[in-house]
Design goal:
The chain is α/β, with parallel strands linked by helices. It is about 30% helix and about 25% strand. It has a seven-stranded mixed beta sheet with strand order 8-7-5-6-9-10-20, with helices on both faces. It has a six-stranded mixed beta sheet with strand order 11-13-14-15-16-17, sandwiched between helices. Strands 18, 19, 21, 22 and 23 form a five-stranded antiparallel beta sheet that branches. Helix 3 crosses helix 4 and helix 9 crosses helix 10. The longest helix has 17 residues. It starts with 8 loop residues before the first helix and ends with a helix.
């Protein structure tokens, strides 16, 4: 990343980098702490009364909290948690969705040295029970809307819970909002833990088996700091910056790529519990003058069905960061052309994130590429024996075992942790190609690979090709068992609005020829099924596993 080579020590420090032995590395102070790096930094007279968070209610009214108010509410909740016996290392479930209570709860748990268990409200009761029972959390913070369907069976589902605090409570549980009004004694002292102490327990979306508990230390935000600055195009500290994302705050995209970065910069985040749609999102961003957002590629694809959004909406948006799945070149061109924003894609996984990415301010993006290795990271592509592959060849993305953004480990799952070891490397099970300039091009998951007639076919590039066709709003590609070929390529396609009534055999052949011509004949789907929607994982990705299992079951039948 030669663009940073001439930066001064002070300039590098502002984005969390330092120079050691002539190489750029990520600065992670031993006392790094999520609270101290966010709200705790902004309690001086010049900042404490600035807006920290805004909630838009269903009726359109808004509720604002300043950094000083977040500080007061989180201290009050911290006192209440201590009264419930929560202290250093104890797990507290946060199940409050995209609401201020979630962000406040994170600060409160930090103040007592606890570990926040981030729980999506998309979880069904069995998945929620698995997570809470796996970590044996004693306290859960939730909302009435989320808790009401669970209340009657709670004792059986969650035997380890001793206390449940419910926001907007209509039952017999203590009200979470009232708990945030607990008097804070003058002698209240925070117990802030350090960089390598656990801070977050995040359960994976469960694409294989039940969700796995991933522990991150307080170091995680410090280790993300350089890449956050880069994928927000070195504009994190813009005075007028306003942050928003529809991504779930129980997951990395919503929490660590949006809520905490906003507060790391001392800027406000706006939120809503409204259901996402393109028209609603454009209106919301215009109303709140949103400048910075994290959007999954699938969300950007939905926005891209609006051909000329700037003429219809008074938008302030200028930076989109995106990740979690490959971004089609055509979608990037729409974002930067029709929407008129910088769109920086980045890559990583919950266990070890922000490995690769873009920063238009420093180096050119290449449409369809994830970018180059971010500073402070060593990223390689290797074959199944752990040997480097040449430029242009498909390999698995790996990094060093001591990667700065590495998780602390899986909870109660040493066997799963061993699966990420490949000799001296930490593996990702993601496949990519690297060009001679160091740009990476995503090729899919190793466990999603389709082996057909001797060919190894990654689904991601076929999906990207399909989505580039105007008839396709979204697509998923899997391998369907086949006695002659091992597997065949099967595509599931959600037609775009203009083609919804033309999803017929002619369109199937059109799309098949589109892939044949754009990629290769052997990559063209032999079968295409049109669907109205996809089942999504709780992190907002199409659940390919469900589609694969359905095809396998049909084959066995």
């Amino acid at each position: 990343m030669n663009s940073l080579d001439n930066w001064t020590v002070e300039a590098l420090a502002r984005i969390g980098l330092e120079r050691k032995d002539g190489l750029l590395s990520i600065a992670i102070p031993e006392d790094s702490n999520l609270y101290a790096m966010t709200v705790g930094r902004y309690l001086g007279a010049d900042h404490r009364d600035r807006r920290a968070i805004t909630l838009e209610h269903p009726d359109g009214s808004t509720e604002h909290l300043t950094f000083a108010e977040v500080e007061q509410l989180s201290s009050a909740l911290a006192v209440r948690l201590r009264q419930l016996g929560i202290g250093r290392g104890d797990y507290v479930g946060i199940h409050c969705g995209l609401r201020p209570e979630t962000a406040i709860a994170h600060m409160a748990i930090c103040k007592v040295g606890g570990v926040a268990v981030t729980l999506s409200q998309l979880y069904g009761p069995d998945t929620l029970a698995h997570a809470l029972n796996d970590c044996q959390a004693a306290v859960l913070l939730t909302t009435e809307a989320a808790w009401a369907p669970l209340r009657a069976d709670a004792a059986d589902l969650f035997p380890h819970l001793s206390d449940v605090l419910v926001a907007q409570c209509t039952g017999n549980e203590p009200d979470l909002n009232h708990a945030m009004q607990t008097p804070v004694p003058d002698d209240f002292v925070m117990d802030l833990t350090g960089a390598d102490d656990p801070a977050l327990l995040m359960y994976t979306s469960g694409s294989t088996g039940m969700p796995k508990g991933i522990l991150h230390g307080h170091r995680v935000l410090a280790s993300y700091r350089p890449s956050i600055n880069l994928f927000f195009n070195l504009s994190l500290d813009d005075e007028d910056a306003v942050f928003w994302s529809p991504s779930d705050w129980a997951w990395v995209g919503g929490l660590l790529d949006m809520v905490f970065p906003a507060w790391l910069a001392g800027r406000p985040i706006v939120t809503s519990e409204a259901r996402f749609s393109a028209e609603w999102a454009f209106d919301f961003m215009a109303r709140h003058k949103v400048t910075h957002t994290f959007l999954a590629p699938s969300a950007i694809r939905r926005l891209a069905q609006t051909p000329d959004p700037r003429t219809q909406h008074a938008l302030s948006l200028r930076v989109i960061c995106t990740g979690g799945e490959a971004l089609a070149a055509e979608i990037l061109e729409w974002a930067e052309g029709a929407l008129g924003v910088v769109c920086n894609e980045f890559y990583g996984m919950t266990e070890v994130n922000h490995l690769i990415g873009n920063c238009a301010q420093l180096y050119p993006r290449r449409a369809g590429s994830m970018g180059i290795a971010y500073p402070g990271h060593r990223v390689m592509l290797v074959d199944t024996d752990g040997k480097d592959v040449a430029p242009g060849e498909v390999g698995e993305i790996v990094t060093t075992a001591d990667a700065p953004t590495r998780y602390l480990g899986y909870l109660n799952n040493p066997d799963k942790e061993a699966e990420l070891c490949l000799g001296p490397f930490m593996r990702t099970h993601d496949l990519a190609v690297r060009d001679t300039d160091g740009y990476y091009w995503y090729k899919g998951r190793s466990d999603d690979l389709i082996k057909s007639s001797g060919f190894r076919i990654g689904p991601a590039e076929i999906e990207e090709c399909l989505i580039a066709h105007p008839a396709v709003a979204d697509a998923a590609v899997v391998g369907k068992p086949d006695k002659e070929r091992g597997s065949i390529v099967k595509a599931f396609v959600k037609p775009s609005r203009d083609y919804a009534d033309r999803a017929d055999a002619d369109l199937v052949e059109t799309l098949r020829q589109h892939v044949r011509q754009r990629l290769a004949p052997y990559k063209a789907p032999r079968e295409i099924t049109f669907v109205d929607s996809f089942e999504m994982t709780s992190s907002g990705k199409i659940n390919r596993k469900v589609l694969r299992l359905a095809e396998a079951a049909d084959d066995e039948g």
